[in-house]
Write a structure and sequence with these properties.
Distance between the termini: 29 Å
Strand order of the largest sheet: 10-9-8-11-6-12-15-14
Order of helices and strands: HEEHEHEHEHHEEHEHEEHEHEEEE
Helix content: 25-40%
Structural class: alpha/beta
Radius of gyration: 23 Å
Number of strands: 15
Number of helices: 10
Length: 344
């Protein structure tokens, strides 16, 4: 398939538009659109700004008006073919008189897919695959959740060099540094769900909100999910009005993720204790590991991970290291490891 230099530049611009800061994460994908004239100049551009707002194609078409007729629409995701809070983008492109549509990523959502066929039936030329890997990377979590019918799970842990998450007396607050805690809040802000077990709530009473470096809460907060069968006192801080909270009364990670998926959740940030982490790892429901390693030894205390049932080194869980970063401006030199398990 042949793409012009103008189309390549337009797709790069559409991807940049889709990644605009301030666009809420989930449940919708990030999408950008650029309309090109025959000479390769830009007629209009648009991007999606969150659930309930015009889709990228509709945004660009509204800005172009009558000038959209005869243009090439360069779109990061296949135009949708269904009516939800907004109308189908494929039909809007047809009605606007667009001549050609260049798409980066096919829509994996069976509910919204089919836009290509609608466009081609209307006589519009359609091509796929321009910067497809970049488009998929932009919406990695959303794509994963659609294709696997469950949220993407990031497990975060803080540990000493000898694998301890707390001292013998239970103290754990200073296992990670202030820089590591700031970085954790940054990562929390990229997820739409915080998940811990009832044991963590009972013992540590965490707030489970996203806060800035000065401790001020973000305007948009992830869902706080507590997993486990035990009852918890209403006085626990997780039940305050700072953010929405749900109690998932199950010990089964599959059930918990299914309930969260039913709530349109795409990305779970798992911050529970060693028992909860082991439960998710044992059934293969951890998709990313973020480990903050402090340069200290305790020699005893709470392990950072519970029993996985592994009895021999050959059976060890060996995720692939994708990033190693000594946290900037951290006098304690904590290291953040990012790892991904192997997938078939």
């Amino acid at each position: 398939m042949a793409f012009s230099a103008a189309e390549r530049d337009a797709m790069a611009r559409a991807l940049a538009l889709a990644a605009t800061d301030g666009v809420p994460l989930g449940p919708n994908p990030r999408v950008g659109c650029v309309l090109l004239a025959d000479d390769g100049s830009t007629v209009a551009e648009g991007h999606h700004r969150g659930a309930g707002t015009p889709h990228a194609e509709a945004d660009a078409l509204a800005r172009a008006g009558a000038a959209a007729r005869g243009t090439t629409a360069v779109v990061t995701l296949e135009p949708c073919n269904h009516t939800g809070r907004t109308g189908p983008c494929a039909r809007a492109l047809v009605e606007a008189g667009v001549r050609r549509v260049v798409i980066a990523q096919r829509d994996p959502n069976p509910v919204a897919a089919g836009g290509t066929e609608t466009l081609r039936v209307a006589g519009i030329e359609v091509e796929h695959g321009l910067l497809a890997d970049d488009a998929r990377a932009l919406n990695e979590v959303w794509t994963f959740a659609v294709e696997h019918a469950r949220p993407f799970v990031t497990w975060k842990l803080a540990t000493t060099l000898d694998g301890r998450s707390a001292a013998v007396d239970g103290t754990s607050r200073w296992v990670s540094s202030e820089a590591a805690r700031r970085d954790t809040h940054r990562l929390r802000s990229l997820a739409d769900t915080m998940l811990v077990g009832t044991g963590t709530i009972a013992v540590d009473d965490p707030l489970l909100t996203v806060r800035d470096a000065e401790g001020r809460p973000h305007a948009v907060q992830p869902l706080r999910a507590v997993m486990g069968e035990r009852d918890l006192p209403a006085s626990r801080r997780v039940f305050n009005d700072d953010a929405e909270t749900v109690h998932l009364r199950t010990r089964d990670p599959h059930v918990a993720l299914a309930e969260l998926r039913a709530r349109d959740r795409q990305h779970v940030f798992l911050e529970g204790g060693p028992t909860l982490a082991a439960a998710f790892l044992r059934v293969g429901l951890v998709d990313e590991v973020v480990a903050y390693v402090a340069p200290m030894f305790l020699g005893a205390g709470l392990s950072s991970l519970g029993d996985l049932g592994i009895t021999t080194i050959a059976a060890a869980f060996r995720p692939t290291v994708t990033d190693v970063t000594v946290l900037p401006d951290d006098p304690e030199h904590n290291v953040r490891y990012t790892l991904r398990p192997e997938r078939d």
